[in-house]
Amino acid sequence: MKRKKAGLEKRIFISFFVISLLLVLFLTILQWIIAKNIIKQYENEKILKPLSFIKLAQTEFKEGSLDLLNSITDDKEIVNSILDLDSLKISKRITPYLSNPKAGHIVIYNHENDLIYGTEWDLIEKYVNKMFQLLYVNDFGSFIANFGNKLYQISYFSFYEDDEKEKFIGIVVNVESINRQSFHLEQYNEVVLIPNSEELRKDLFPDNFSNLVDNISNKIGKMIDEDKEESIFRLNTEIASGIYINYDLNGEPSAFFIIPFNRNFNQFVQQSILFFLIIILGITLIAIVLIGTWFKQTILHPIKEIRDRMQDVAKNPSIIEPIEIRYYGKIGDIVEKLENKYSGVLGDMIETFNMMNKALAEYSSSHKGYKFLVEHLNSGIFWLDSEYKIILCNPSFRELLEISETDKVLGVSLIEFLHFSPRILEKAKTEAITISSVRVKIKDKVKYLIFNVRPVEDKSGTRLVGSIADITKEVTERKAREALELELIKSNKLAEIGRRVEGIIHNLNSPLNSILGYAQLLKKEFSRHKDLEKILEAGKVISHYVKVLQTKIRKDDVYMTHPININELIEQELELCTHNLFFKHYVILEKNLDPELPEILAVFGDISLCVANLLNNAIESLKDSPEKYIRVRTYQTSELVAIEIEDTGSGIEEKNLDKIFEPYFTTKKHKDAIGFGLGLAIGKNITEKYNGRIEVKSIIGHGSTFTIFLPFGK
Q: What count of other Cβ atoms lies within 10 Å of the Cβ of residue 268?
């Protein structure tokens, strides 16, 4: 027990420590995020300020060059000289403009892209075609170009014949050499201007940047791939950098402005956060020790007492109700109580625990009584949720369903076991339902159950409580009595019919023999008369049927068990079916009788009655069928003889397959159909009497197959 207490203290201490540590980490991370955003904003401001100055200086530089070119294009004498293609006049007239500080290498092209003033230069030729293309969009432009690892500001302006700018006649281009001083960056000594070349030179950067040149080069390459002009990068914890890229007229990078920045402020903030974290952790550890000691003495001890008592109850619930309580005392007098020496919330907790302990004892006593009663009932008791799934059940319920493990029952719908229609259980949600006899098939056994269910309201909603009881024995006895009554009625009727038919056959034999005798005498005298031959043939057919019928009556009258040749019995029944004109003229009979079929021990009349009923049912089912086939087959298994009768009739609906063997149930819908629905019920009783069975397979629109299985040699 001491080890458990130490474990509890340790867990509480660790939990408190972890929570405190997580809180400190959260505050530290929050402070770090806030500081990082402030630092980022500060650095961006410091980097963007010179970057804005560079852009402004670059704009002013461009405007000065464009103003010069605009003055040249507005000079009418120069315009006329271009129209006259007079280079000397252009040179003479443009000379005053060359004294302008913004004037560099100036050239003029006419509208046919021919150089008419100035010296041809590869730098200008590289872009002149692009300038002419862009003049359709804008009359002027300016950009920085890189040529021979030197930077030049190239500006161009278009000439028009008049002020309406309806006729384009040429352009003027001004090329100025530029460097870092061109943008007046004296107050930003750290800014570096680099022409685009294959490799950045380390000597152009401050000393602390020399190791980061490759990194900066990679950043520039990434910006070029993404067509970016400017971006800010944090190269490491000490250095940040802003990069501004100038692109020439062809979209190629020409120059890079790189703005280094030392992140000393960032280092200071990081050190401050680390110092703050150390202080917080120290304070937290001291607080954990002090609060933990107080928590152990004031709160943990009584909670552990309650915990230990609850653990004892969980391990052995019977301790809350001593056995003597049922006979000698009251629950409140015997249940052990915890000593309450605390006030406030802890005192209320211990008092509540003692009340709970007493209530549990009372509940346990009542629960055990009900449990004993339910578990020893012969009836199955069950409890269903709103979806008809089994929540609880007693052992008798599982025994009735022949299921040994409770896990295979709980959580499964009752419909899967008893195959009820959901409408029955749906109705049970509003009123109590009793079904006096339910036929179910459990592990190939047929059982009859009485079923009761009623709705019960609880906190979870409407649930169903019910019971089932096995009445298979009573139902079997009742059905046996009914079958016996049917057998007696049938036997009496058949016996009376047999006696009458036998008398009729006896009375028919004498005149039939006389007819055949006189016909034979007449044939001797009138041998060529064909009608006498027909009379003799018809008489012999009648005599054959009379003998067959007489043989059947005599065999049916013998109610003793004796060996029976099934094939001969079937041949006899098929021959008797030929009196049915529909069978004789419309039905196609196919036979496949096993010649090696063993004999069975049975009463001839029983088996012939079963076969006759199945043949008559098959014939009846074919009257409305387009295909009229009856197939009779016999075969044997390891222990059984099988008689299979297949028809191509209308078939039987699947829902009726279990009902067709019930007395007075019939599926015959033909207007000439006869019978009371007893044939299959009688056949089933007869086959079961010989430990046999009847099986049926049927497909609507295709027909049915009935198979009688009977044991041989018994």
A: 11
